[in-house]
Each structure stands twice: as structure tokens, then as C-alpha cells.
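Example for tutorial group B:
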């Protein structure tokens, strides 16, 4: 019988390395190809000393060749840890939240955790639903920024058994773990800067949705006025929604007063944008006629016209501190209950000495 000659142009098939399967391979696929049991594959992929070195090497070689990747879900069912953190923000479009998120993600990734991001749209009921949904999906911990329902998490914690850390909680009370900015001190510094420039008619443009942070910043503003011997005038306090458009309307109201302010302390930088635009639309200049100060020091603050004087929040650091606190809680360790982060006044060109001192 004639032997069939092999085509010299065809390379021999290497049967030691299996072809990749079309779907994501499982441990069962690896076990079948390696002719071992499922537990043996699992142990080999976890570098267990219970598996013979040669067998383990062969299993890992097959896993690489087939493109096998360990399932985080399956691993979580065994270890009860998914290496994931749930993160709830008021809105992904908020520049403040995006900076905090960067700090959270960087710290989480450094410790081998993935972050699942969810948007509450500043709706308290939606925030609760999102937090519960994340807990049901077995995230190891949850961080909530600018929480609208902070104090309600205590009963939820008992049910969910998932560690939660809040960043700038808008309802601070007896909640266990949070990272908060020094709102009172920050706004007091901004208002004191304006009184030091000779301003006597200083307005406060707040955020009606700011809850506790707005109350604390208003208190800081009032404290600075008192220290300068300036009487508080309720008519110089207006509120928007923390965004430029409503800040413009609030500023127009202030400029229409019989004795308009010569300076405005804004709840945040987004409000300051609207305030500066309204001043210019009124035919006045910043800071020639009206000085404007913000709060946050968002990325655009140094590039507005003129550059904005503002209170700097270390947003990425706050995200880092919140994640480090959560990691400790997830590991069963003690963590500081309430972390207070300081602010820094950044003086730029949107504030200047008052042209005239108008008695309050």
C-alpha cells in the first residue's frame, strides 16, 4: 500500500495547543481539554500548591491559548467579594463630581477594584433605588457624592450589610462615615476677602438645592460680615439652582435693587459664571463695578474673563480619602467616622477694591 505523502507546503498541526473557542471559554472547557477535574483547574489557576507543577503549567498554557479569563461573578460567589465599588453621583455632567470620581477611580484601581458609576439626577428617591440596586448586585462597597438622603442610610445599612461612605453629605447627622469639605470656613474666607477690599454691600448667591452645604456657606458668609461690623441684610441673599442660567436671573434681581451690591459671594463656580455674565449684560464690569467670588475652583475658573477668585476644594483628594475609608470598612478595619477636609482661597482677578463704600 502506497503511503500518502504530506504536502510539503502545509505545516504540521500542533495538537498540544487547542484552537480558541468562539465563545468565552469556561473552567469546564479547560478541564475537558486538559483531561482533569474542574477543581484541579480552579486550583491551578489560583497557583495552589496542591496541583502538580507540570499539570498546573499545562493548564495555564491551555487557558492562555483559549483566551480564558476568570469570571469576577463566579469568583465572587466563592469568595463573597466581587472587587467592585458602586459609585453614585448627582449627575455625570457636574464638573465637581467628575473630579471626585477621578480620585475615587484612581485609588480603587490601585487596589484592584473596578468602579460601577450610577447617576441619581439629584433625586432622593432615585438615589435610594440606585444604592439598593448596587447592593443587590453584590458590590463590595458604595460611595455616594452629595447625598440627598444621607441620614436614611442607617436603616438601609442594617438590611444591605454593605459599607457606605458619603462625600459632601447634604443631610449630615448620625451617619457613620463621610468625607466633608469645610463649607463654613471656606465661605467665611471668601467673604472676609471681600470685606478686606472695602466692600460693604456683599450679596450671597446660594443654591436652594444645596441643603446642608448651602446653610453652612451662608453661615460662613454671615460670620465674615459680623467680624467686619457689617449688618446682615436678608435682601442681599438670593438662591438659584447651582447652575449659570438661574444664577443670572438671581443676579439681575440683585442689580435691580435700589442699593445694589458691590460684590457677590457665590455658592459655587457654576453660579459665579452666571453672575459674571449677568453683570456684563447689565452694562457693568467685573471687578470694576461688581466683584464676584466662587466656590470649588473647577477647571475653568482660571480661564474665565476675568479669572475667577474662588474657594478651592481638593476634589480628587476627597475622592481618594473616601475610597481609602471604604477600603478599610470593607476589610473590617476601623476608619475615621467623619473626615473634614480644609479649603484654600484662590485670589484671582474677579475681585478688586470697592470703588465706594456704601453704608449698609
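The residue assignment follows.
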Amino acid at each position: 500500500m502506497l503511503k500518502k505523502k504530506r504536502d510539503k507546503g502545509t505545516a504540521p498541526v500542533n495538537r498540544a495547543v487547542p484552537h480558541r473557542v468562539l465563545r468565552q471559554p469556561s473552567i469546564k472547557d479547560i478541564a475537558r481539554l486538559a483531561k482533569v477535574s474542574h477543581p484541579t483547574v480552579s486550583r491551578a489557576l489560583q497557583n495552589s500548591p496542591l496541583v502538580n507543577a507540570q499539570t498546573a503549567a499545562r493548564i495555564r498554557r491551555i487557558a492562555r491559548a483559549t483566551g480564558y479569563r476568570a469570571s469576577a461573578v463566579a469568583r465572587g460567589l466563592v469568595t463573597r467579594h466581587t472587587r467592585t465599588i458602586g459609585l453614585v453621583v448627582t449627575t455625570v455632567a457636574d464638573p465637581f463630581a467628575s473630579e471626585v470620581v477621578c480620585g475615587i477611580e484612581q485609588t480603587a484601581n490601585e487596589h484592584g477594584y473596578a468602579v460601577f458609576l450610577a447617576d441619581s439626577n439629584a433625586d432622593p428617591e432615585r438615589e435610594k433605588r440606585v444604592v439598593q440596586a448596587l447592593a443587590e448586585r453584590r458590590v463590595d462597597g458604595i460611595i455616594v457624592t452629595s447625598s440627598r438622603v444621607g441620614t436614611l442610610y442607617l436603616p438601609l445599612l442594617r438590611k444591605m450589610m454593605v459599607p457606605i461612605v458619603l462625600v459632601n453629605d447634604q443631610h449630615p447627622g448620625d451617619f457613620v462615615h463621610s468625607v466633608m469639605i469645610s463649607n463654613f470656613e471656606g465661605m467665611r474666607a471668601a467673604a472676609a476677602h471681600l470685606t478686606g477690599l472695602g466692600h460693604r454691600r456683599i450679596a450671597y448667591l446660594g443654591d436652594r438645592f444645596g441643603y446642608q452645604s448651602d446653610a453652612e456657606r451662608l453661615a460662613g458668609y454671615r460670620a465674615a460680615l459680623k467680624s467686619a461690623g457689617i449688618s446682615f441684610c436678608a435682601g442681599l441673599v438670593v438662591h438659584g439652582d447651582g447652575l449659570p442660567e438661574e444664577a443670572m436671573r438671581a443676579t439681575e434681581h440683585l442689580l435691580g435693587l435700589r442699593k445694589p451690591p458691590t460684590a457677590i459671594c457665590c455658592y459655587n463656580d457654576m453660579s459665579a459664571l452666571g453672575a459674571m455674565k449677568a453683570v456684563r449684560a447689565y452694562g457693568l464690569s467685573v471687578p470694576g463695578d461688581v466683584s464676584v467670588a466662587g466656590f470649588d475652583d473647577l477647571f475653568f475658573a482660571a480661564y474665565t474673563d476675568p479669572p475667577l477668585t474662588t474657594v478651592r476644594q481638593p476634589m480628587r483628594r476627597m475622592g481618594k480619602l473616601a475610597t481609602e475609608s471604604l477600603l478599610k470598612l470593607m476589610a473590617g478595619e476601623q476608619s475615621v467616622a467623619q473626615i473634614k477636609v480644609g479649603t484654600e482661597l484662590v485670589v484671582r482677578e474677579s475681585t478688586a477694591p470697592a470703588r465706594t463704600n456704601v453704608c449698609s
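Residues 184-313 form a domain with the Rossmann fold fold (CATH 3.40.50.2300). Compare this with the pattern of hydrophobic and polar residues in the output above.
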